[in-house]
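Q: What would this chain look like folded?
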Amino acid sequence: MTTNNDISSADACIEFQDVISGYKDFMILNNLSFKARRGAITLLMGPNGAGKSTVLKTLFGLLKPRQGQVLLNGEKINGASQKDLLAKGIAFVPQGRNLFGQLTVYENLELGGITLGMKTTHERIPEVLALFPRVKERLNSRAASLSGGEQKQLEIGRALLLRPQVLLIDEPSIGLSPMVVLDVFKLLRKLSTQGTTVLIVEQNVKSALAYSDDAIAMESGRLVLHKPASEILSDPTMERLFLGGAHVAASTP
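A: My prediction, written as structure tokens:
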């Protein structure tokens, strides 16, 4: 196992310490430990079933660790509710479409800011719409009528209403065109430069690595590699993780 030992606890926004987590009696994460740097984009990668999405769900309180500690800026957040985690600045954009299809774009944004109160939400909606001009054009359209790319942008925009210090995003490229995927990654890069810590799960490894700072490779719920994003594909371990090297060869920039 190769880990990025350069990340100190003082620099870490997120820290997992020997976390065991999963579903009822089926544990996915097996004594997982890692640190994610504050203000950086960290990519979680690995084969299907490695536990990548389970990391995000455990961080967001959808799954409770059976053992170990989850820390946010040095503070233990095990067992915290989603409401508490939102208040602490963690926002989660899950895989798939998670909009209220019969409501308008504006109404979906209002619901995204429900924990803020309507006054604050209405004050922040314009700054979110400035990031997504196409969504702004569809403000009064039903969310179900938006294209896949527009829906994903709306989901991200809804999360950004909270001005999160940590953004968790799971497989944002699913069902999107390559052009829209690049727009999403560029937005995540912009958020990172503004201080947001981003933890992303993404199978589109080539594009994701180009916009990430660090990368964590997982297998069977354990950390296998933790390196700068620019170095991880050259590690020989990646050939074993991804189909005997075929995936790596296809993904190398």
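The two ends are 24 Å apart (CA to CA).
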